[in-house]
Amino acid sequence: MGLQPLEFSDCYLDSPWFRERVRAHEAELEKTNKFIKELLKDGKNLIAATKNLSAAQRKFAHSLRDFKFEFIGDAETDDERYIDASLHEFSNFLKNLEEQREILALSVTETLIKPLERFRKEQLGAVKEEKKKFDKETEKNYSLLEKHLSLSAKKKELQLQEADNQVEQNRKHFYELSLEYVCKLQEIQERKKFECVEPVLSFFQGLFTFYHQGYELAKDFNHYKMALQINIQNTRNRFEGTRSEVEELMNKIRRNPQEHKRANHLTMEGYLYVQEKRPAPFGSSWVKHYCTYRKETKKFTMIPFEHRSGGKVGDEELFVLMYCTKRNTDTIDRRFCFDLEASDRPGVPVTMQAFSEEDRKLWMEALDGKEALFINSDRANAKREGSAQLDKIGFTVIKKCISAVETRGINDQGLYRVVGVSSKVQRLLSLLMDAKTCNEVDLENSADWEVKTITSAMKQYLRSLPEPLMTYELHGEFIIPAKSGSPESRVNAVHFLVHKLPEKNKEMLEILMKHLANVSKHSKRNLMTVANLGVVFGPTLMRPQEETVAAIMDLKFQNIVVEILIENHEKIFKTLPDATFPEPISMSVSPPNAPPRQSRRQGQRIKRPLAVYNLCLELDDADSHSSPREDTPTGSMDSLSSQSPTPTSSSSPPGLMDGNHLIMDSGDLAGWTTNLPGQGRPSMVSWMNTPSANPAAANPAPSTFFFPTPATGSDRAGESIAHRKARAVYPCEAEHSSELSFQIGAIFEDVQFSREPGWLEGTLNGKRGLIPQNYVQFL
């Protein structure tokens, strides 16, 4: 049972039961006071903990933002660029989240702490003051009454009457104070229910608003997360292929190091110990040098180097060699020695010591002008070369294998990835490559040959060609466009290069790409997406003439070239390339640190963070988000290497990531000018993004990544680009009636800056609307 009500009539009786009820009310208010004090203490601890958590999260975000991955080689794939930029994106996500958490901490102070403190001081404090008055008046009333009752009856009537009046007045004052105190007690008992609970409700509303903002941020982050997962999977797949190639090369070099020495302009290079003579009492010392020799110029260089001290310990010394003489052990107390004499120091030989007799022999043969004892770098390839040729039998073998695969195993999981038994593969190849037995082999109807045996035989045949299908000569040129440029420019570059291949190579490549495109269409069953097929056939169709780790690092770009061929095989093989397209071999390669292509992740316009937390969560219709689309990236959802995700117009420039620079909500482009590949020396990106570039032009056309920086304020009003034209470099799908939908290559008329930052206004096919500024190139 709850507290009993305090009746006003009981104030006049002031019975023991009335006093008990008053004391019960007072005890309840004291308990409420203690509860509020404890709640305020916990609330302040909560705010402190929230601030500590926010500081730790921000520090974590700074750590993510400040780190950058380095890569091996001279370029990265699109997947690797997006992975590199992901840490900056994670940092921005945490930063946005912590901004909302700071608002939450502020709202706790304003909506919970201050109202409860005010109620405790103003309301409960007032009751305490009333209680003091009530207790004091009670003591005074009953003391006066006792004194009055003890008066002698023999006193004068006037004195007694005066005493009676005084007691009566005091009693009335006591009753009035009692009535007010009782009223105040009951008022506070009722008031505390909403005065205490309403701030707590506001606190929870602020908490829910914070979680809702986190949900909105996560929803905006979802498309980026999905694309990044594909980037990571593509990079992991390429890593697996690269690792196996590196291990194979390492084992080859371990078995026979001399066979795999890198071909370069130097005739001989390696470590030698050089005798340095000292004055007579000190004898001589032997210092390790890294030496190089070039036979054409007879230039010999020495660089003192000590591994134990961590690096070079002296300056490079260069001289022109006159002759070299072998030193026998009867003339020196060390083995493997020989003397060199420089043209500028005749008669002053320099004594060298090799690591072994074989090493000395190699140096001697190189230094005296004999033929260098090198093994042709193609010997490793020759070991695996058979009689495979791009002749009639070769085309028959490939066509028979393709026909069998498409008839029997197009839906087999891991097609082309699952390897057949080596002995069966060799037996099948020997039958297919023999003109007498080739036509007798029935691959489509015979159960003797498993699909994995057929696919392995087909790959082995292609690897056994004297030269890879896409040729050694064009290998480097195919790699260049895969390292930079927009998706369209890559397709154009590969299209151009394919038509430079020998006719038979191009014909065979067309047959293969048509087949692989068909395989990728069944990827839901066979799991062989375009990206997976690129990993399998990249090293099969392309390989460098010299096997090195640097060349293996380019495997991922070989895969990208194959992906482009599969996805665009009809355009590449059925149409002729643009005759004005510049030859890649004549252009400069993109520098190692070329800016990454602008990240265009899908998502909704970023919602403005709430400045305050209201009791009720109000969502502004103008800023509310529609549910995110599950749009599929252009080309293949499984390959972001050759195509980027196709954005929608809801991916408005404010809030987009550009490499490692965030385009702010205000429309300003933070750090944008440092990311313009059109500035500085020309790069591969520049010419690849020019629809019809002239290689001889003194000033190359700007890259498709260059967009005029939007004007702000009065500058925008004063800038006029009326009647200018622009060309779409990315496709876009409108999600509002005021926006335009378009495909790559669309030409916009009368393009002007919009009042909305990051957007343009233009006319397409008679319709005028908004265009995302970073999707077009001005003409």
TrEMBL record:
GO terms for molecular function: GTPase activator activity. It is found in: Cell membrane; Cytoplasm, Perinuclear region; Endosome membrane. This is Rho GTPase-activating protein 10. It holds the Pfam family SH3_9. Residues 622-632 have a biased composition (Basic and acidic residues). Its main location: membrane. GO terms for cellular component: cytosol; endosome membrane; perinuclear region of cytoplasm; plasma membrane. GO terms for biological process: cytoskeleton organization; negative regulation of apoptotic process; signal transduction. InterPro entries: AH/BAR_dom_sf, BAR_dom, GRAF_fam, PH-like_dom_sf, PH_domain, PH_GRAF, Rho_GTPase_activation_prot, RhoGAP_dom. CDD domains: BAR-PH_GRAF_family, RhoGAP_Graf. Residues 388-573 form the Rho-GAP domain. GTPase-activating protein that catalyzes the conversion of active GTP-bound Rho GTPases to their inactive GDP-bound form, thus suppressing various Rho GTPase-mediated cellular processes. Also converts Cdc42 to an inactive GDP-bound state. Essential for PTKB2 regulation of cytoskeletal organization via Rho family GTPases. Inhibits PAK2 proteolytic fragment PAK-2p34 kinase activity and changes its localization from the nucleus to the perinuclear region. Stabilizes PAK-2p34 thereby increasing stimulation of cell death. Gene3D superfamilies: Arfaptin homology (AH) domain/BAR domain (1.20.1270.60), Pleckstrin-homology domain (PH domain)/Phosphotyrosine-binding domain (PTB) (2.30.29.30), Rho GTPase activation protein (1.10.555.10), SH3 Domains (2.30.30.40). Residues 265-372 form the PH domain.
